[in-house]
Write a structure and sequence with these properties.
Distance between the termini: 52 Å
Number of helices: 1
Helix content: over 70%
Oligomer: single chain
Low-confidence stretches: none
Largest sheet: none
Structural class: mainly alpha
Mean pLDDT: 95
Order of helices and strands: H
Number of strands: 0
Radius of gyration: 19 Å
């Protein structure tokens, strides 16, 4: 039973870390894309 619990804990922690990493990377990707559009096309940063 302890072994199964450790597998669940490790799996859940890994999923949590991956989703957190995805949110951080996508945040910077969206900001970078908005800055790129602002420089290249003159679009507003708020759209």
């Amino acid at each position: 039973m302890k072994f199964l619990m450790w597998i669940v804990i490790i799996f859940g922690g890994g999923i949590g870390l991956l989703s957190c990493f995805y949110m951080v990377v996508s945040l910077f990707a969206v900001i970078g894309f908005k800055i790129y559009r602002k420089i290249k096309y003159g679009y507003s940063l708020y759209q």
